[in-house]
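[READ THE FOLD]
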Amino acid sequence: MTAEAPVTVQNIDPVQALELIRDGAVRVLDVRTPDEFQTNGHIPGAELLPVDLIATAAATLAREGAPVLVACEHGVRSAHAASFLAQAGFPRVLNLVGGMSQWSGPREHTPGDPSSGLGPSSWLVENVDLLPRSGQVLDLACGKGRHALLLAGAGFPVHAVDADEETIRTLQATAARLGMELRAEVLDLEDAGVELPPRAYDAILGFHYLHRPLFPALVRALRPGGVMLYETFTADQAKRAEGPSNPDFLLQPGELERLVRPLQVLRRREGEFHGRMISAVAARC
């Protein structure tokens, strides 16, 4: 068996970075806060993902294409983020030494929104205070695992399920590389015989997925005091150019609150958020 190459990050100075950017030879990932990104200015074309959300990049940032150049204000946060990406298996990662404090190239001051790009749903971030301090988390229809990886990186044991075998295989391999406590399982949640163990989870996440017959099983799967964070598209999304249009996968006004009964709805939102028409609840068993 051939040993894997050691994880490395290449440090480059602002002069080298400017040349690479002018040549279109790198992609820029800015790991500062949204306020820093806009107020202090960022490299034109940079994508925003604050360092405390960097775990989602292992699922949302494309591994193909040009190397990733990671930047922050002084080079400290970017060094951490770049090391994480390299450990996650990105083939070539660069760190901007000295950060934007040493940058003399062009800047833009447009706002950045990680929830519209590489980051997790803002509904998860805004309601993370409701999650138990420990306990098992179930991530439904997890996709590439942006939420599963984020919570596993924060120390939660996560059970992530999805019907796509290749997606699950990739997620499990990524979690193993990162040493995360994450179990990824191929599971078709719409199979008539699917079962979820009762009172097995302290938190259940459901994002951009809807199968109405599943909700009674989800309610039963929550432990007393457990929390469900759920968010998906409403029927108004069908009026948009992008996104689902099949009514089977779109919520009607107020429907989500009815689906999660008898859980206690603690927080809710419905309308347009981050360019999507969605409905969301945070509910407790």
Remarks:
- The chain has a mean pLDDT of 94.
- The first strand starts at residue 10 and ends at 12.
- Residues 122-284 form a domain with the Rossmann fold fold (CATH 3.40.50.150).
